[in-house]
């Protein structure tokens, strides 16, 4: 039922505005649809994404929080765990039944006690520490492993672009 | 939906189309009045087989004066009408006009109730429209195999009206679902939408009466064919109305939750099963009626080797699977519910007072709660809907031994264990998040990013005797862990050291059965424990080769 999902999302929004975690802003794109959020994530300090502000979109299912939302960066991203179209590939966003091959343990997967805040914090840590075994973007993963300098250069360019600074 | 048809086909805009239709109809009426000015038109038409040759026939019969001129207004109109009925061009013009009317009504309703349609609504509508047209075409020409043009016309107009209402109902459903995404929908939108739904429901009742009336003369089969779709329409519409009412009740409850009384809370607790059973009832009834309707068509059409019956069979198969799926889901629901009631007690009021946190699933206050063996508390309904799809505690991931034998979602353990999976040793990075900084019940969690290295990927699965020896070795150290659990873990790790590490790190623990002696035996599902506990530290492992061949992953 969408009713309980809506109430939960409203509660999360309230909590995020009252007690915002560092470097993260998130909320519904417009009040008419609480199932589509926009988030701004600041690149973690001391990493190649430092200083960037990355916009992303979160789409919630009608049975949230039983199913995880989908997350997609709306800016250009180059990262081993982010698909070329911006979709984020981290285990916290995967429903428990999604992975028939058993590559991920269900303990790391979605559960209703997870929340938008936890997702975004996981994404921040993913930006800081890419998992190059999870090749959502194979080129990025390869470059991350073999040519870190080049990777950092690309990341820096992306950071500049998100800030509107000409590269 | 005719409205979307306009977007789709390269047509002139609605204004052009409707004025064109009106002009065409007027032309036909004019033609008809011209025809009946001739006193001999009736006889001429009677003797003519091909109405297109009308004029010539009139010439031929000119001498034959059979009908006196001088008609009343009513007769005049009916004459005009009968002329038009005989003339194919006029008939098509009239049909076109009727469609034009439907489109205009549809547009008016759309403007009045829905405003701008969203993209997904349009898409949904288009699909539904073509689907409906396809199946009704099959029905009219493949199943009942009508012979006469007027029969075709009657069926077509019936189905046009029905389809129109179906599409409106569908649109209302989509819109309701969309509106329920927002807490700030103005009351007026709800009222308009509910009024439309009520009107559709009333109209479907009226159409049911019509089909009873027609069936009274036309026989049972005609009645069954006509009424099935109407009943489906009314069931679907009523379903939406009831869901809507429940939703509005929910939202109202939210508004007044701070001052809710005990009585209200009891109703609130009961709401879960009520909502579930109405949902189930409506879905199953609709599916079964649809199924019987299609079965009836198949039996009645009597031609088992035609294209039409093939299509019907496909549809029957689909409906059967849907019913089966729904039934299985329901069985699972019952199973999980019984399991909950039998194995996990409701939390006592002291426990509720002690645990002042909200339910971790819906983030709302708990007036009553169910307690899992790990002492985590949840609302009964929240827990139930989660356990329907997963069998572990949402908070601590403790595997619960809920496995409905009839609907095992997970493959038998052997299948999974026997697949030799490349194992990895991890060099990990931690990201630690202390949840209690924010809300006391938020668990602390660490995101561990793994840099995995393949470890003996080609190693053959250890033989059983070897495994047993290794397992005994481990069990000497950890006698509280059952041997099957150890063996299962060893099958994956293939190393005594790693398994011991897993136990020490708490990734491999005794299954719930060992702490809760009276739950369902876990013999049929040792894997569940393993899956939740053995390798918690793999954040995400994706094999490179697999991703390059199968990059689409959601
Ligand atoms: Zn709850
Ligand atoms: Zn627990």
Can you offer a commentary on this structure?
The complex is a heterodimer of chains A (167) and B (554). The N and C termini of chain A lie far apart (47 Å). Chain A has a 4-stranded antiparallel beta sheet with strand order 1-2-3-4. With 167 residues, chain A is of the alpha+beta class. Helix content of chain A is 32%, strand content 17%. In chain A, a hairpin with a 2-residue loop joins strand 1 and strand 2. With 554 residues, chain B is mainly alpha-helical. In chain B, 64% of the residues lie in helices and 5% in strands. Chain B has 20 helices and 4 strands. In chain B, a hairpin with a 5-residue loop joins strand 1 and strand 2. In chain B, helix 6 packs parallel to helix 8, helix 8 runs antiparallel to helix 9 and helix 11 packs antiparallel against helix 12. The radius of gyration of chain B is 34 Å and the shape is elongated. At the A-B interface, helix 1, strand 2 and helix 2 of A face helix 10, helix 14, strand 3, strand 4 and helix 19 of B. The structure holds zinc ion (2 copies). The site of one zinc ion has 7 residues of chain B, from loops. Chain B: InterPro entries: CUE (IPR003892), TPR_SYVN1_N (IPR057992), Znf_RING (IPR001841), Znf_RING/FYVE/PHD (IPR013083).
Low-pLDDT runs of chain A: none
Largest sheet of chain B: 2 strands, antiparallel
In DSSP terms, counting alpha (H) and pi (I) runs of 4 or more, how many helices of chain B? 20
Could you tell me the radius of gyration of chain A in angstroms? 16 Å
Order of helices and strands of chain A: HEEEEHHH
Secondary-structure-based class of chain A equals alpha+beta
Distance between the amino and carboxyl termini of chain B: 33 Å
Give the neighbour order of strands across the main sheet of chain A.
1-2-3-4
Q: Provide mean pLDDT of chain B, rounded.
A: 72
The shape of chain A is: globular
| Percent helix of chain B | 55-70%
Number of helices of chain A: 4
Order of helical and strand elements of chain B:
HHHHHHHHHHHHHEEHHEEHHHHH
The CA-CA distance between the termini of chain A, in Å, is: 47 Å
Largest sheet of chain A: 4 strands, antiparallel
